[in-house]
Design goal:
Blueprint (H helix, E strand, L loop, with lengths): L2 H15 L13 E6 L6 H5 L6 E6 L6 H12 L14
Parallel strand pairs: 1-2
Length: 91
């Protein structure tokens, strides 16, 4: 089995049990994170985030380029989810 085959099989398993489709598209913590694409780093684990908490934008070096600014602008223009409706979020 190739790495691509393994990744596709994992994606199918993930999709078959995905239960977070009801999360709003805007990030629940109303934040976007720009991070390095270094495969050794897990920004969600590092920052204590879960699915739906933040938009994560990764590139080489975590550099803020024109594309990153465009992505951040789109992220921040989405209507924010009310914090009180975000599962597990404490104020």
């Amino acid at each position: 089995m190739t790495v691509t085959d393994e990744l596709l099989a994992s994606a199918e398993r993930y999709a078959s049990t995905f239960a977070n489709g009801d999360l709003p598209m805007p990030p629940g913590r109303q934040v976007a994170v720009v991070a390095c694409m270094d495969a050794r780093l897990n920004p969600y684990g590092l920052l204590g985030l879960r699915e739906g908490d933040a938009h994560l934008i990764r590139n080489a070096g975590g550099v803020v380029t024109g594309d990153v600014i465009r992505s951040l602008a789109i992220s921040q223009r989405l209507e924010p989810a009310p914090l009180s409706r975000t599962p597990g979020l404490r104020r």
